Amino acid sequence: MSEFTDKVKGVANEVAGKVKQAIGDTTNDGEMQADGAAQEGKGHVQQGVGNAKGAVKGVVDKL
């Protein structure tokens, strides 16, 4: 995947995770809250991967 794709998917997972957590909070569903937290974490990691790809590309382009 490209840097941009990783970042976009990361943001989408973060938003979806936050929504799941809010639904879990509202319905007192601990499993839903945990799933949301995990998905939000996955989104953070995906954005980090996108940022790393951008940094590597920037260094390679300077060579």
Structural class assignment: mainly alpha
Poorly predicted tracts of residues: none
| Fraction of helical residues | over 70%
Order of helices and strands: HH
Strand segment tally? 0
Tally of contiguous helical segments:
2
User: Domains counted in the coordinates: how many?
Assistant: 1
Strand content: under 5%
Largest sheet: none
Average pLDDT for all residues:
95
The rounded distance between the terminal residues' Cα atoms is 23 Å
Radius of gyration: 15 Å
Shape: rod-shaped
Model description:
It is a single chain. With 63 residues, the protein is mainly α. The protein has one domain (3-62). The protein is 92% helix and 0% strand. It is built from 2 helices and no strands. The longest helix is centred in the last third of the chain and has 33 residues, at 30-62. The radius of gyration is 15 Å and the shape is rod-shaped.
List keywords for this structure.
single chain; 63 residues; mainly alpha; 2 helices; 92% helix
In short, what is this structure?
By secondary structure, the protein is mainly α. It has helices at 3-27, 30-62.
